[in-house]
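README: folding subset

This subset contains proteins for which both the sequence and a predicted structure token string are available. Records are stored as plain text. Below is the entry for Puromycin-sensitive aminopeptidase (522 residues), shown exactly as it appears on disk.
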Amino acid sequence: MGDAGTVLLSNLYSSTPLGKRQRVFLCVILVMIMLIKFSRNPVFLFLLHLIGVISAIHFSQKLQAPCCVSSLKHSAKNISRYRQSLNLEVSHRRNYRFPHPSLYRAKQVSRRFVCSVATESSPKQVEESKMDMPKEIFLKDYKLPDYYFDTMDLNFLLGEEKTTVYSKITVLPRVEGSPFPLVLDGVDLKLVSVKVNSKELKEEDYVLSPRHLTLPSLPSGEFTLEIVTEICPQKNTSLEGLYKSSGNFCTQCEAEGFRKITFYQDRPDIMAKYTCRIEGDKSLYPVLLSNGNLIEHGDLEGGKHYAIWEDPFKKPCYLFALVAGQLESRDDTFVTRSGRTVSLRIWTPAQDVPRTVHAMYSLKAAMKWDEDVFGLEYDLDLFNIVAVPDFNMGAMENKSLNIFNSKLVLASPETATDADYAAILGVIGHEYFHNWTGNRVTCRDWFQLSLKEGLTVFRDQEFSSDMGSRTVKRIADVSRLRNYQFPQDAGPMAHPVRPHSYIKMDNFYTVTVHFTNLFAIF
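--- output ---
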């Protein structure tokens, strides 16, 4: 439409109040522009740009009035319209030259003025746009972390408006005397305090950004890092990290949810031994669960109680889990081949406990099968399963605290089909088998996701085949590949089993990455 059209459109769409005559005048001019916009006549082009300059000067004077301050707040729609007009202007510029240099300079002034009005944004908006800018992660860019974490002690004070998280980390530099800063991931966190070797840091001692906490000056050897943060699980609608739904606290940390709980190196190759203390209102949250073995619990003043959990085996933070709420359990035991007795509990809302019979059978069958076929014995004294209707991931293999969506655990003879029973058997087995293929032996980075998932899918396929009909199971697995993976592989979303890069980790969980493996195909 040209530069005059650009100026006129920006003025028409602005919030500046116009008189009736001015609006009629502008409409007439726009009609003229539409009539001549395909014309190459230099006279028309000269008049067109002259009108644009006059309009720009007129409205620049008008914008200086106090009543027109609101015009600085153009909407995103107006900005896009201006940019579209600007793109058309560029194509016109390739076809002709301006008849006089002064008109070109005036055009440049008017365009700069309109652009400043249309695109001016607050520093906060600029900061948010930078924070939301996607960054592509490449496999070839992997490098070892500069710091390792040996132990991680967590303390949660569950509240109705906010939850306070205390973390204490034993940090080991990969190279003694490392000069590198420690960069911790963190999203939607309120930082309360940071201490290094019990000494509280001042604000100038660290750099806090919307996604990271950077500590530039650190001791040359081993040190302790204590961080206090506040989070709002009740307002966490992403269902990642710690969130509250239907009165229960629940976590989902795979793949990058732990950074919404506290500042940490949120990557699979950072493995530490975890202890977790949970404190909350006993009437609201009578059940307090986390990874590992329960080593202590008791009552506190004010109607509160606490529980302390310890996981003796190192794990990445994506396997951390916490559940607190009003749940009841179906209890059973399993005796391992070495003679240890393992307590088994499946936690659900009270009304769903009767429908967990088949899930408990499936869990015990999976534990026995893994010992008989792979020689892998469960390594803790307690194994918990939680089934809640608000879990968005489907199922998650958190160490010793598997969390499921209820539909993958509950079944009753009155309503469940053979397919339902088979699906529960397979998914319970799959998440249990992750105890060794994924948890104890885990990924270096997320590009190895297909290793832990592909191998565990093969294991659950073999388990289901041995527990039922191998032929029927094989037909079902091949049908799934043909119906879901083959079309993906033949379409625009095709990608290798181990992609070379990703922008958002959530998009990594595809049929190709998750279910395709050499064992399943051949």
